[in-house]
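Data availability (excerpt). The following record was deposited with the supplementary files.
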Amino acid sequence: MTAVAAAPSASADRRATHFVGVILGVLLLAAYFALPFVNQPELGATGITTLTQRGNNEFELETNGLVLLPIAAAAALGLGLWTVFSPRHERVTSILIGGSGVVALAYFIIFFKAYLEAKGSSYLGSMAFGFWAMLALAVLMIAQTVLPRASTGEEFSIRRVLGNQEMILLGGLIALVTIVGISNPRYLAERNITDVLQSHAYIAVAAIGTTMVIITGNIDISIGSLVGLLAIISGRIATDTGLIWLAWLAPPVLGMVAGGVTGFLVAYMRIPSIVVTLGMLSILKGMLLIWTAGSRVVDLPEGFFLAQMRPLNIPMPVWFMVVLTILAALWMRYSGFGRSLYAVGGNKEAARLSGLSEHRIVFQVFVINGFFVGISSVLYATQLTIIQATPPPGMELTVITAAVVGGVSILGGTGTAIGATLAAILLSAIRSSMVFVNLSPFWLRAVQGLLILVTVLADLLRRRRQRV
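Predicted structure:
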C-alpha cells in the first residue's frame, strides 16, 4: 500500500522537468532577438555594427555562427514539446536538448576565438544582456541532463533509443557540424548551411522512394538515368509549350509509368530487381542520349525554376524534403500499406499466410518510387538555368548510400524515411566539410563506400544476434 501511495508523489515531484526544454527554448529565442546586432544594428558600437554586415566583413560572426543559436533554440523548444506530450521519452529528450546546448555553445567558442584573434577589439564590454543570457542558457541546456528523471521503462530506455540509426546519424551530423565549424567558422555561414540542406534535397526525396523499395527486399539502380530523362522532358515541355504546370506535373506521372513497368517485370514476371533496373538504366540512358544528341536544354522560361523559389526565405527543395519525409514517415508507420512493406520484406511467407499479396505490394512500391523520382527530377531540373543532357553523375550510388546508411537493411524489412533523409543531409555535410578542411572532394566516393560497408556489416551482426 505504501509503495502504491508513494508513486504519484514521486511522479508529481518530477513533473516540472517536463517543461524544462520548452522554457529553455523560449528563453534562448527571446535572448537571441534581444541582441542589438540582430534587431537594432544602429544602436551598437562600430564593432557591433560590423557583425550585421554580410559578405566581406571583419569577423563574419553573424553568418558564420549566429545561425546556430535559433537552430539550437528551435530544437530545444521542439524537444520540450515532445516531452510535454510524451513524458515517457523524457530521458532521451533531455540528452538531445543537451546536444542542442553544445550547438549553441559552439557559437560562443567561435565568437571568442575570432575576438581574441582580432587585434584591438574592444566591443565585448558593449554586448547587451541578451548575449550573456544566451551563454548562460547554453550552459543550462547542457547542465539539465543531470536533473533527476522519472523511470521510463525498458521500452524507452536511453540505450535502446540512442542505438537507433536515426539518433546515430543525428549525433554524427551535430558532431561534424560543430567540429568543422569550430576549426573553420566559415563552414557555419548561413549560405553554406543552406547549401548543405539544399544541394542534396533532391537526393533525399529520391532516397525516400528507394527506402520503400529496399524495405521490400528489392533495389533500383536506374534512378539516375530516370532523373536525367525526366528532367530533360520537363525542360522540353517548358520551352516548347510554355506550360509550366505541365512541365512540373509530367515527371512524377511519367516516373510512375516507368516504375510501373519495372514493378510489373519484378513482381509478376519474377525477374530479379537488380537485373530489371540494370536493363532500365541502360535503356533510359540510351534514350536520353539519342533524343538529346548531347545538347542541353537552355532558354528556359523564367517561372520554371521551382527549386530557386524561397517561400519564407527557405529554399523550395528544403520544403519538399522536409514535408515529403514527414508524410512518408507517418504513412509508412501508421497506414496498412506502409506496414505491409515491412511484412513483405521481413518474411514473405509469413506475409502471404497473413493474406498479403506480395505481387501487388511490390508492383505498387515501384510505382510510388517512380513518383518520388519524378519529384526529384523536377527539383534537379529547376535548380540551374540549364539542364544537362546526361544523368546526374553517381546519383544511384548516392541515393542507395543514403537509404542504406539511413538504416534500411539491404536484406529488407527495416528502415525509415527519416533515416534516409538524415543520411542524405550527412553526406552533403561531409562533402561540404571536405572543402573547408582542405581535403580532396574525390574522397567522398571512398567515404560513401565505407559507410555502406560499415552499415551493412552492423546490420548483419544485429541480425545474427537476434537469431541467437
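Summary of structural features: Residues 90-117 form the longest helix (28 residues).
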